[in-house]
Amino acid sequence: MSEQTPGSAEPTFTAPGTLTPVVTDMWDKQRSWTLDAYRDAGGYQGLARAKTMSAGELVDLVKASNLRGRGGAGFPTGLKWSFLPAPDGLPRYLVVNADESEPGTCKDMPTLMANPHALVEGVAITSRAIGADRAFVYVRGEVAHAYRRLLHAIHDATDAGLLDDGFGLDGQQPLKIVAHAGAGAYICGEETALLDSLEGRRGHPRLRPPFPAVQGLYARPTVINNVETISSVPGVLTRGAAWYSSMGTERSKGHGLFSVTGHVVNPGQFEAPFGITMRELIELAGGMRPGHKLKFWVPGGSSTPIFGPEELDVPLDYESVIGAGSLLGTRALQVFDDTVSVVRVVSRWTEFYQHESCGKCTPCREGTYWMRQIMTRLEAGQGRPGDVEKLEDIAANISGRSFCALGDAAATPIASGIKRFRSEFEAGYTTPAAELFPPAASSIVNSQAQSGR
């Protein structure tokens, strides 16, 4: 187990945890994205098993595995599927959220690039479990290469006859999978805004209830899951619920993708059981940049509260991270060393959320604009007396009062940044962030170029 030297400001990193490549197992294979490569590795065996099971048996199997949603909320997947009302003879749909776009989040697009058939097989299994014969994958439109690769995977699976029958309410229909390219709006990662966009309207969050399970796409019962969630389903079918639930912690079962970016030697994707620690992941990533110390990190992307070196040994599972004061989210683990200005980082995040606010509700529309103005002043060293307190007040009035979670996401880095690094924010009254922390010192590109890498 990792240990931190008592009284030391600099964390020490020792033995890493165990990796469990499942979704990522094929990423290093020759032409891993092709149907032949996927089938050679045992692909579509889970779908073959699913076609021998009833819809109820499939839902019960996924429930027994304790697979939780990978989109950030961690809601039990099988339970979510079971919320659909009893069949009424009319359509029901599966929608896969592939609109990955939060700063630091980078697991779904690599999955679509390296192993799109895992998603296609997962879509087929899930569609059978919920009685759907039409599924939609909503892909972020700017990632054209991932979109094209998904289109090819759907085409190849269809041509191979893998989706010809076994779907729909009677279990006898072919499955049609539609890959839909969005227009690049972060708000469409919110599930109801995604549905509006799919239906041809501007992506705005919907008032709930009714929930998508009852009235989702085209006002029909709809299951919405994330790419990683659905891509994890084939493993459960192939290897069993007991195999899946044997990994992880008591309440956060299984494996997940942990995306480590920032000031580590080797940033990358690490698929590991829930419960691995950040100390272990940093060791797996080769440690911090030589000559530098860890200053702060976020466990779930820019929308989650900031952690420091003292949280390095918090197990990365949903309950433990919440208990320590943050959220596991999408496991977008951004690492910042002692050369980084917290004010500058939070200012970039605030700009992002202000730009991506859909404008539907007043707290988010107006509040993110005000926060961006103040953060710009503080970063430039032109803050006004009371700006830090004003930021705290605005963030508190956005959080929990917005129509969807984007408002909370915008307020969180402001509130947690001030809580942990108040003096840096107050220094913005008189001193530019670039003077306190020269950007060149924190640039990974420059440092690598200077070292000849």
UniProtKB/TrEMBL annotation:
Q: Which UniProt keywords apply?
A: 4Fe-4S, Flavoprotein, FMN, Iron, Iron-sulfur, Metal-binding, NAD, Quinone, Translocase
The GO molecular function terms of this record are: 4 iron, 4 sulfur cluster binding; FMN binding; metal ion binding; NAD binding; NADH dehydrogenase (ubiquinone) activity; quinone binding
Q: Which cofactor does it need?
A: FMN; [4Fe-4S] cluster
Query: InterPro entries, per this entry?
Result: NADH-UbQ_OxRdtase_51kDa_CS (IPR001949), NADH-UbQ_OxRdtase_suF (IPR011537), Nuo51_FMN-bd (IPR011538), Nuo51_FMN-bd_sf (IPR037225), Nuop51_4Fe4S-bd (IPR019575), Nuop51_4Fe4S-bd_sf (IPR037207), Soluble_ligand-bd (IPR019554)
Task: Name the chemical reaction catalysed here.
Answer: a quinone + NADH + 5 H(+)(in) = a quinol + NAD(+) + 4 H(+)(out)
- Domain NADH-ubiquinone oxidoreductase 51kDa subunit iron-sulphur binding: start-end pairs: 343-388
Q: What is its EC number?
A: 7.1.1.-
Question: In terms of domain of life, where is this protein from?
Answer: Bacteria
Q: Per the record, which residues fall in region Disordered?
A: 1-20
Q: Which family does it belong to?
A: Belongs to the complex I 51 kDa subunit family.
Functionally, this protein is described as follows: NDH-1 shuttles electrons from NADH, via FMN and iron-sulfur (Fe-S) centers, to quinones in the respiratory chain.
Q: What's the protein name? A: NADH-quinone oxidoreductase subunit F
